[in-house]
Amino acid sequence: MNRFIGKTVLVTGAGSGLGRATALAFAAEGASVVVAGRTRASLDETVRLIETAGGTAAAVVADVTDSEQVRHLVQESVARFGGLHIAVNNAGILRGSGPVADVCEEDWDAVLRTNVTGVWLAMKHEIAHMRGNGGGVIVNIASNLGAHLRIPDAAAYITSKAAVSALTRATALDHIHEGIRVNAVSPGASDAPMSLRPGETEAERAERVKSQNPLGRLAGAEEVAAAVLYLASPEAGSVVGTDLVVDSGSSA
């Protein structure tokens, strides 16, 4: 399929995991992809993988918690490929595990700053460009942990991702009249580094997941990416403000 020929796509948190898989998937369908994150080496590896497969990509180092860096990221995306048509706000962190009363303030602040404020800042600057250039599409990466499912000892992450889901819906209503369509994808445990527990191997994770969700396996990173591409595609032209859960039935 070539649904994204002529489109420029920005993916934050694209140095590994779901962000990398999403960047590869967009490039495979013809998009020019800007991959963003805080670590140059991992971004360069994503670009190398895309170019080896025949795609087009560029890396821009940026911290989504810094407004000026995000503004520059959007400007660079436009400068390098002539526009910004689609943005996937995927950058996020997982910190502050344990009961609420035991979470340190530093971890709480870091999770909310990256996972919520980072998404807000990204959309703020992406929309500032899109609203004056014919509109666009934004897909935010939330989580099944949050609006859809709660577990013990993860309050900071759960709170942040529930906020991303609510922020997505609010933004969708604010900006659909400007031709900017905003949705979210909420992955569950997927084949990405963040789903590994400390010291856990991939084989041990697979065994653990067998008893933890109805499907009995992790969602593949490519399966989550496919959901993102659907929401970004013309086939989803009337989908506005949804939160698409991809979690192997865990929150059904």
State the main characteristics.
Rossmann fold, 43% helix, 252 residues, 7-stranded parallel sheet, globular, alpha/beta, 7 helices
Shape: globular
Question: What structural category do the secondary elements indicate?
Answer: alpha/beta
CATH class reads: Alpha Beta
Question: What's the gyration radius in Å?
Answer: 17 Å
What share of the residues does DSSP label as strand, in percent? 15-25%
Termini separation comes to 31 Å
Strand order in the sheet with the most strands: 3-2-1-4-5-6-7
CATH fourth-tier homologous superfamily:
NAD(P)-binding Rossmann-like Domain
Helical coverage, percent range: 40-55%
CATH architecture: 3-Layer(aba) Sandwich
| Poorly predicted segments | none
Number of strands: 7
Indicate how many domains the architecture comprises. Answer: 1
Q: What is the CATH fold-level name?
A: Rossmann fold
Please characterize this protein's 3D structure.
This protein has 252 residues and is α/β, with parallel strands linked by helices. The protein has a single domain (8-188, 226-246), classed as Rossmann fold. Helix content is 43%, strand content 15%. Helix 1 crosses helix 7. The longest helix has 26 residues, at 105-130. It is globular and about 45 Å long.
